[in-house]
């Protein structure tokens, strides 16, 4: 199994990019946080701790309280890759997060993004 560079990248380094991407399209940091918390099970405080500790993506997902049961409903293409076909479990979680942020930036309703 190949070790992807993003696995060891601090989540705190990518997080501001998620926020910027959403804000450029008129969404808010709170909505980004809501999406991340929905996916990972973190509460706002837990998410902030991950950012403060500058944990890498591997640790960020390892320490996540629990992935949302509806993650199987996250489908589509990110960076030319179908998220539902990603073999590596950690890479799939990262792609799910990318997909959710993309949907937020594209103006989808929170109800649709959160697979309600």
Automatic annotation (TrEMBL):
It holds the Pfam family DUF2200. It comes from the Bacteria. InterPro entries: SP1917_dom_sf (IPR023204), UCP033199 (IPR014580). This is DUF2200 domain-containing protein.
């Amino acid at each position: 199994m190949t070790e992807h560079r993003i696995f060891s990248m601090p989540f705190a380094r990518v997080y501001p990019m998620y926020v910027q991407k959403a804000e450029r399209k008129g969404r808010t940091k709170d909505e980004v946080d809501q999406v991340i918390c929905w996916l990972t099970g973190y509460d706002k405080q837990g998410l902030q701790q991950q950012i403060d500790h500058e944990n890498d993506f591997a640790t960020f997902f390892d320490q996540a309280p629990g992935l949302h049961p509806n993650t199987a409903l996250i489908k589509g293409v990110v960076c030319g890759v179908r998220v539902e076909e990603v073999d590596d479990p950690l890479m799939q979680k990262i792609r799910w997060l990318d997909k959710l942020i993309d949907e937020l930036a594209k103006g989808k309703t929170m109800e649709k993004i959160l697979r309600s």
